[in-house]
Design goal:
Elements (H helix, E strand, L loop, with lengths): L5 E4 L3 H12 L4 E5 L3 H11 L2 E2 L3 H7 L2 E4 L3 H11 L8 E4 L18 E8 L16 E6 L4 H10 L3 E4 L5 H28 L4 H22 L1 H4 L3 H4 L2 H10 L2 H21 L6 H7 L3
Parallel strand pairs: 1-2, 1-4, 2-3, 4-5, 5-6, 7-8
Antiparallel strand pairs: 6-7
Helix pairs in contact: 6-7
Bound molecules: NADP nicotinamide-adenine-dinucleotide phosphate (NAP).
Length: 284
């Protein structure tokens, strides 16, 4: 495998974590250039690499430039770096929702663009890298180095997928649905228990086995087989009881989600009659 030197613009959570992960796996990391010198210095110390105060030198030293700034800064960083010689370099960012097309007219500069997204919550500059081998990595971008990048992450133990630029929004929607939106639903469950006089801590602790069991079932048996509960059973009286204790806003959400669950229930129990439930939920 060719030796490619990786450098990071943006010494935040992802820059720290990915740099440390690569370095720990003996991949050549040049170092960091960030908005604040203090951040680059901190990252360089953590990863035992170099910090740069001069963008030109940073670019000269690095073959693959990872822009790990907030999404809103990627475009302006690109506008800065394309002013320097970047022929044959890989220009990458880590955003889930933005494609590599943000690096506009990149062929004109002889460079290759990629979006490389770890499907993973990276919450700590100093600790998240330890969990990086569990991250599924998606790669989108120019064919030239796709296989190289895929093999690199695979060799570190990551599962890797290639996606197209057209699918980035849909792909990111999937990530948000199962992480942030699930979090909001768990928050609703916790709130209902708090209304039953549970403390927040007790609510999370008591719900956790349910959450975990559900996730483990999905992992081992898939979605349809894991479905249980009143919608699947067609238990209209229980569903009405729930609706009677919900505020209007939550009732609307509950009914919408229940309709969504019903679609799965119908594929699981093709001979079960869900007509009354469908009528109640407003399907018919
Ligand atoms: N965190 C996650 O869970 C996660 C997961 C997957 C993908 N991502 C993606 O990874 C990227 C980085 O996210 P993050 O969570 O690491 O963000 P972050 O912790 O906020 O770090 C971003 C860093 O970029 C630096 N920066 C801001 N503007 C800059 C500029 N114009 N030039 C140079 N450096 C600049 C800041 O450094 P200073 O300290 O120097 O100001 C900041 O520390 C985003 O594209 C995000 O969508 C994040």
């Amino acid at each position: 495998m060719v030796t490619i030197k990786f450098g990071f613009i943006g010494a935040g959570k992802v820059g720290f974590s990915l740099g440390k992960y690569l370095k720990e796996n003996n991949i050549y990391v040049t170092g960091y250039y960030s908005k604040n010198q203090h951040s680059s210095e901190e990252a360089a110390i953590f990863t035992n690499t170099r910090y740069y105060t001069n963008l030109k030198t940073f670019i000269e030293d690095s073959d693959a430039i990872f822009i790990t700034t907030p999404d809103g800064e990627i475009q302006s960083v690109w506008n800065e770096i394309k002013e320097f010689p970047i022929n044959n370099k890989l220009i990458c960012h880590c955003s889930g929702s933005i494609s590599s097309e943000i690096f506009s007219n990149i062929t004109k500069y002889g460079a290759y663009s990629y979006s490389i997204h770890p499907m993973f919550a990276i919450s700590s500059k100093y600790n998240s890298y330890k969990n990086f081998p569990n991250a599924f990595i998606t790669i989108e971008g120019h064919e030239k180095y796709q296989k190289y990048l895929q093999d690199l992450f695979k060799s570190l133990g990551n599962d890797v997928g290639i996606i197209s630029k057209e699918n980035k929004a849909l792909y990111h929607l999937a990530c948000v649905t199962v992480s942030n939106l699930v979090l909001s639903l768990i928050n609703n469950g916790v709130t209902y228990l708090k209304d039953c006089e549970f403390s927040e801590e007790m609510a999370i602790k008591s719900l956790f086995p349910l959450i975990e069991f559900n996730l483990n079932n999905i992992k081992s048996d898939g979605i349809v087989k894991s479905l249980t509960g009143p919608v699947e059973r067609g238990d209209l009286s229980t569903i009405k009881k729930h609706c009677n204790v919900l505020c209007e806003e939550d009732k609307e959400l509950y009914k919408l989600l229940s309709k969504n669950v019903l679609k799965i229930a119908k594929t699981k129990n093709i001979n079960r009659d869900y007509t009354k439930l469908e009528e109640y939920l407003g399907e018919k």
